[in-house]
């Protein structure tokens, strides 16, 4: 195989891509296709949408299993309750997601884009509806070119009505992650939605309808930043959708029983079906392009043509540049996937996942924070005591009631006592309470200056101690009493 068997990815900045950037959009009519990659895509569409649409309806401990309650500043994720103080977990989760994307891209290109990206998923759903109502590629082209008629109006209206229903249900589900979805359904039925709920439901529905129904490949080509920097994450051993130029060229039409080798032709029959099924409208035979989302539709289409012509499959296939150039077997190409950058990504990803899991498992059921009352640093009480006032914030991170006890220990202060509302010792499940605390020291035992004290909060559930939190703070004795 010669060096011309591989054509590099066409990236933005070249003359052709600059011209394409400013051209008027040409509507793409993807042709339906069946095959292994199509089945994977269908299954992942079903799987991802079962998670998205079904999760808000799950119940856990008499509440919605997954709920991001912004008003109460609590995130419920099954048995886990997260507070604003737990933002570190969100940060780690975002880093884990980014590293997973880097890892998958380094191994097999834009897998996420082709199979799990919301833009791809909803485009597939909308295309499925469009094909059922208007027909496949050529029927849709004819329908759009025909003058308006009652039939055309009926087909278009039916399609858009179904699109809008799905978009509205998607917007409703999205808002249902932030407002209890069962209560939200009652508000929609009684036309009692609040302004922000209405805005976000309609906004998300409009975005779904517009992006999946009209913009489609434009989102992937011009709006998605991933398409622009993916080239820095792939190398010559990354598996990508590839056209075998050495085997396919020179392309040309021929009969099924003709000897194309004797005629000087390659295996490509120049049917252009690989272009017709592409959701972004590219020709993979011109080399891998940044618009390619790695969905594999062209592979399924080309394999069907190869079967009809009795040629070997794989003229278009998932393989790497080195495999194509060096004629490596599929097994040898897969072995070269395990290279240093993959091990680095995988190692960091596994370490972060393990660290997150351990941190969540060891997470304290009680959070304590103590702040001084800035309005009164220190004061004399009854001529006998020096008093400092604090605010103690107690957070019960579990979904069971908790009993707490608060004690104060002074390192060099004798006779220290603590006073607070004893009713605050019972913390409701997943509750947050701010408790005023007064700490006093006898005047005769108080030396002028700043003293370190420890506030110890002990919590119990069902008669068993579950946490003991020690918070250090300062006790001030003024110079003049």
UniProtKB/TrEMBL annotation:
The keyword Electron transport applies. It comes from Cupriavidus pampae. PROSITE patterns: 4FE4S_FER_1, 4FE4S_FER_2. It holds the Pfam family FixG_C. Keywords: 4Fe-4S, Electron transport, Iron, Iron-sulfur, Membrane, Metal-binding, Transmembrane, Transmembrane helix, Transport. The chain crosses the membrane at residues 40-60, 87-106, 161-181, 193-214, 342-362. Residues 259-287, 291-314 form the 4Fe-4S ferredoxin-type domain. InterPro entries: 4Fe4S_Fe-S-bd, 4Fe4S_Fe_S_CS, Cyt_c_oxidase_cbb3_FixG, Electron_Trans/Redox, FixG_C, Ig-like_fold. This is 4Fe-4S ferredoxin-type domain-containing protein. It comes from the Bacteria.
């Amino acid at each position: 195989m010669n060096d011309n068997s591989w054509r590099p990815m066409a990236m933005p900045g070249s003359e052709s891509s600059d011209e394409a950037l400013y051209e008027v959009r040409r509507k793409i009519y993807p042709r339906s296709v069946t095959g292994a990659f199509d089945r994977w895509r269908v299954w992942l569409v079903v799987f991802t949408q079962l998670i998205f649409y079904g999760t808000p309806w799950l119940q856990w401990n008499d509440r919605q299993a997954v709920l991001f309650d912004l008003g109460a500043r609590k995130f419920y994720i099954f048995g886990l309750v997260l507070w604003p103080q737990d933002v570190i977990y969100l940060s780690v989760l975002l880093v884990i997601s980014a590293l997973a994307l880097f890892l998958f891209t380094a191994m097999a290109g834009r897998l996420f884009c082709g199979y799990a990206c919301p833009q791809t998923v909803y485009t597939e759903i909308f295309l499925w509806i469009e094909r059922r109502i208007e027909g496949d590629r050529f029927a849709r082209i004819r329908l759009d070119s025909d003058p308006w008629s009652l039939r055309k109006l009926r087909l278009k209206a039916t399609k858009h009505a179904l699109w809008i229903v799905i978009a509205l249900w998607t917007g409703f589900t999205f808002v249902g992650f932030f407002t209890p979805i069962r209560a939200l359904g009652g508000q929609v039925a009684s036309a009692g939605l609040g302004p922000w709920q209405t805005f976000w439901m309609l906004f998300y529905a409009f975005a779904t309808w517009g992006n999946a129904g009209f913009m489609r490949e434009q989102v992937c080509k011009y709006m998605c930043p991933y398409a622009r920097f993916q080239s820095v994450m792939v190398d010559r051993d990354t598996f990508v959708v590839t056209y075998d130029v050495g085997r396919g060229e020179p392309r040309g039409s021929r009969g099924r029983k003709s000897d194309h080798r004797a005629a000087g032709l390659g295996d490509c029959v120049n049917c252009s079906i690989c272009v017709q099924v592409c959701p972004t409208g590219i020709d993979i035979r011109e080399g891998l392009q940044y618009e390619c989302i790695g969905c594999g539709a062209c592979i399924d289409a080309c394999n069907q043509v190869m079967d009809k012509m009795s040629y070997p499959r794989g003229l278009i296939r998932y393989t790497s540049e080195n495999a194509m150039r060096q004629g490596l077997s599929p097994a040898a190409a897969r072995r070269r996937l395990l290279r240093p950058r993959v091990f680095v990504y995988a190692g960091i990803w596994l370490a972060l996942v393990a660290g997150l899991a351990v941190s969540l498992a060891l997470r304290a059921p009680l959070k304590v924070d103590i702040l001084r009352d800035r309005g009164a640093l220190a004061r004399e009480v009854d001529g006998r005591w020096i008093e400092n006032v604090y605010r103690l914030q107690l957070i019960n991170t579990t979904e069971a009631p908790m009993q707490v006890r608060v004690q104060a220990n002074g390192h060099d202060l004798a006779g220290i006592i603590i006073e607070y509302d004893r009713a605050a010792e019972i913390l409701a499940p997943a509750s947050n309470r701010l408790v005023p605390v007064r700490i006093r020291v006898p005047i005769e035992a108080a030396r002028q200056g700043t003293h370190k004290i420890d506030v110890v909060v002990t919590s119990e559930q069902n008669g068993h101690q579950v946490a003991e939190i020690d918070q250090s703070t300062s006790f001030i004795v003024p110079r003049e009493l």
